[in-house]
Fold this protein.
Amino acid sequence: MSYIKCPKCELNYMLASDSCCPTCSPKMRGKTITETVVAYDECVQLKMEAREKHRQSMEDYYARRFNRVPKR
């Protein structure tokens, strides 16, 4: 496992088996780093919303099952 400098940016290091560093790879595919970060943030937001929906549905289920008032 040897590291070499990226031939594109000559700033970051990468594995010798890779073609470019992780910073340059989105640029090589036509995407900017900000687009990649925004896509990641959107994915995290969707997962958090899905988790919150599941939590609320489970609270409603337990409230009905055990005759309690759900937390809101």
